[in-house]
């Protein structure tokens, strides 16, 4: 809100912003937690001049490619979007007036900031830009609010240190747990149903981490299954959710029949760690490649009863990691599994050839180059 009514948005000393706020202390310094209507965010909180060299700025350059995606998330989910607080610095003499002079209530009051103040975002610049874009598409969002953690500006050096500290321990969640918790994305939902409704895959799939520990008794990660299903069902946009689930379930159940080591792990005849160490067929690159091959099978052979006849030839492939003449440079690099785009193409090409499926142009080019230009 603004103290003193005005029809012109001037920045003279007589005009002030007044926010409800809670006062706190960190590292001996005062800070304030408040909230702000979304419509004011683009006007109050500015970016550093992106033309400045990094050492003269207090934040990274805005990655404009991220902004439309975040804005779309807000616009498409007006009843359920979630934004965490922005963190900002203000370079002005502020006044805090508590509601009560004693006890806990002395921390709650109103924060008055002159309109001449400059606000700089220390954390949340992409959210700020996305809010501005979302408001242009849906102005009704303007009356909603977002929390602001506001520090008093102590200069460029302090702002730069704040940015470094706020991002020091920031870690993106593992892709597997994102798939597990994402209820907006259809492919995440499909993958969860396919895995959880299968006693076989449910028992062998890690749902939280995207990396399997040496002693883990799991063979697959939920994130790898997600990528494989995305390749498997690519282009089936006209199919219903249930149809996609059924196709994926039948396909992966059929694949499992012809890779006996997977069943050995399920039956506790051999450890998952040994299979991951000695074979490559449970790694993400092979699952992704199987999904790409499966996509062709789903298109060319809609009759699911014929899939076993095609997929049984997976048993003809020597999946041993020690089979370097087959896998080195294709799925392995220096003996280690590699999932680069080129490796995925080459691994997919080998599986296609084994199953008697013709190669698309991109895989044929990769295969020709891999074989030294031989036709």
Task: Describe the protein.
With 375 residues, the chain is of the alpha+beta class. Helices cover 42% and strands 16% of the residues. The protein has helices at residues 41-44, 67-76, 125-137, 156-168, 175-181, 186-196, 199-204, 222-232, 241-257, 260-266, 272-278, 284-300, 307-311, 324-327, 341-355, 361-370, and strands at 2-3, 16-26, 29-37, 45-46, 86-90, 95-98, 108-114, 119-123, 145-152, 205-206, 220-221, 332-333, 336-337. Strand 2 and strand 3 (29-37) form a beta hairpin. Helix 2 (67-76) crosses helix 3.
Question: How are the secondary structure elements laid out?
Answer:
Elements: E1 2-3, E2 16-26, E3 29-37, H1 41-44, E4 45-46, H2 67-76, E5 86-90, E6 95-98, E7 108-114, E8 119-123, H3 125-137, E9 145-152, H4 156-168, H5 175-181, H6 186-196, H7 199-204, E10 205-206, E11 220-221, H8 222-232, H9 241-257, H10 260-266, H11 272-278, H12 284-300, H13 307-311, H14 324-327, E12 332-333, E13 336-337, H15 341-355, H16 361-370
Parallel strand pairs: 4-8, 5-9, 10-11
Antiparallel strand pairs: 1-2, 2-3, 2-7, 3-9, 5-8, 6-7, 12-13
Helix pairs in contact: 2-3, 5-8, 6-8, 6-9, 8-12, 12-15, 15-16
